[in-house]
UniProtKB/TrEMBL annotation:
Residues 29-313 form the Dynamin-type G domain. This is Dynamin family protein. Residues 773-782 have a biased composition (Basic residues). Residues 783-793 have a biased composition (Basic and acidic residues). One of its GO terms (biological process) is peroxisome fission. GO terms for cellular component: membrane; microtubule; mitochondrion. Keywords: GTP-binding, Nucleotide-binding. Residues 595-686 form the GED domain. Pfam families: Dynamin_M (PF01031), Dynamin_N (PF00350).
Amino acid sequence: MRTIALQSPEHRNLLDVIDKLRSRGLGKYVDLPEIVVCGDQSAGKSSVLEAISGMTFPTKDNLCTRFPTELILRRHAQNAVKISINPDPERSAEEKAQLRRFSVDTQSSEPDIGTIVEKAKEAMNLSETRKFSTDVLRIELCGPVQPHLTMVDLPGLFRAGNRGQSAEDALIVSKMVRDYVKRPRSIILAVVSAKSDFALQEITEMARELDPHGLRTLGLITKPDTLDSGSDSEAAYIRLAQNQDVFFRLGWHVLKNRDFKMRHASSNERDEAEEAFFSAWPWAALDNKYLGVKSLRPKLSNVLKDQILQQLPSFVQDIDIEITNCRNHLNRLGTARTTPAEQRRYLFQVSRDFTAIMRAAVDGEYNNVFFGSSKTDEGYRRRLRARVQESLTVFAENVRQHGQNKIIVDSEDEAELSGRQITRSSYMGEVKDLMRRSRGRELPGTFNPLIIGELFIEQCQPWDGIAADVKSDVLRIVYEVAKTIVEHVAVEETAERILQVINTAISSLGDELDSEFQLLLPSRAVHPITYNHYLTDTVQKIQEDRRRHKLREGFRTLMGDDEISPVDQNVYMNPSALISQLEDHTEVDMESYACSLAIDYAEAYYKLASKRLIDDVSVLAVECRLVSRLPFIFQSDAVFGLDDEETLRLAGESEYSTSERRRIKEKLAVLEGSKAELRRLNVHHSPACPSSSPYEDKITEDSTQTINEVEVEDRDSGKMTADQTQDGQVETETHVDSVQNDVSSGRYHSETIDLSFQQDIVDDFECAPSRVKKYKKKKKKNSVADDGQRDNVGHSLNVVNLAPMQPPTWSD
């Protein structure tokens, strides 16, 4: 955050830009840094504005604020007043235009604000039934003694309804004030009347809720003259002003406004009466920087300036985010679609985008932003190829693990069997019965080839269910991904209609996929067919494995060992017994031999067919009939063939979309125009160290010289004490520059410059002739700190001692 001096051209430019953004309606989309003046009705808010600006505001008891009032004060050589109304963004275009034409002849430098307010109420159509408005009355006041300051005055809060204001009106006002106060960039100027208990005033309750740590609230106590001298109430409000009972980071301030007797007094008379009041006990015990309007003006200017500078980086970032959101929304809405040509052009765009993303999904190239991150569930759900591959992998595993109807085991102990397992002897019995019923002209010891088909058909019965599962799963994936793509590339109101067309095309592909599955499933085949030599290889391997198993069992029985050791060893055995073991495993029953051989061939064929099924379902069915054809289901030729009626049905635009596009374009124009204005500032890129509030900045002890006392005679206020450098008498302007430079360089320390005097110096030097009458030089040197460093320095003339900050607390 860079440093900008009070009342400098940079300071004015900073506030002007923010005010311009506010008048454009940026506050509807992004929170703006601003000071909002709020408090209960009759708390003295209007008198506060009057004291700060010097204008006369209506303060009649029966005349309360009915709408937000933006008070813009700027220092200028000439007096000027400009009145306008900033319409609420929710107003219609016609109402906005009418309110923007509102103007009041303000040739006088002190216009009648009461008359202006009444005319504004009339322009806003306020009446007995509609008493409050969210339109903003803008009062721009320029003059040689005005500070650079902008504030928004809000209607006063009240609880109970009466004849003039209902309970419903109270809720309207409360919501309006809450909407301003809850904005995190708003500085809350909470006006509290000393006429009533602090804890009972509604603004205190709202501030507690919306700024619980008191970080952005500045308390302002009014009507201190109504307190009985020496009373507990007076003592309580003095403690409040000292930031003791209720701590605010920005502190408290006290104003004494005009009472009824002084209602016609001039601004100077009002200020003199205020100074006289605060010069008496007990208020004289307080530091002047917490009292009176003279110190309040620079305090508010500094608070607002620092808030803007501090919030500017995040402020610009929020605008950028909103601009991106607007552009994305406009891209989703597409161009206007009121004519058949525009509607067809929109469908071509959707077709092109859908085809490109679907092709990428099919190819497994996930570079498009649509696919997101693979680490998220949403990102994975959009990856078509990955999900199809996963589904087919599960399908292959299911065929291998659960595709065989009966699993033949060599164990003869049926107690050890589970699920689909069956002993070989039991299965051979079933096959023998089947062979007897299917016997043809085959010789004994052989089998009818058709028996293989029957055994195979029985074994692959689970395949139908497994295939149906993978088919439905792949189709579900395709429908889901297609729906997500359409929702990504098309407007919401057209997405559903376009998706109907795409789903119809996917359904047609699903029918072809189903037909392919019917052809591939072996349950529909006439008889097994293969020319793969792995069939005989597999049969021989099955038989060899079975013989090896039986030989192992025979040798184990012969040797009497549970396990055959793989290590070389001498073994003694009876040759006759060995021959007997080998003879026992020679099949002499021709029927059993044929049955066993048929089972072996059926098992071998099943292994070949299961592998073929996995590949055929993956390639011929899923890939060729469905997945590879997805990028072609909504191509431009399909759009080109639509007639005007069908084009209107698919791409026609509702009134909502038309108004939404208009709204987003208006919002984008405000955001982009605001960003262009902010580029003029070029301050959010400037490095600097943040400081505390400007009227609480300090300079440390590591300086070389104190500030010497000087007497300045002002044409209005007589003699006042200030500080000067040791160089003696200098011209006034040179003296101020010297003070500013030395403050910035860290040469001054330990002395306090009163804020009210600072502002007088600035005002006098810029607006009226002043002269330095006499200087009393008092030289005094202090030691220089070893490191030669200094704390963060505030703004030019705002240098005061700062006590350690207390933790934010609220108390009753």
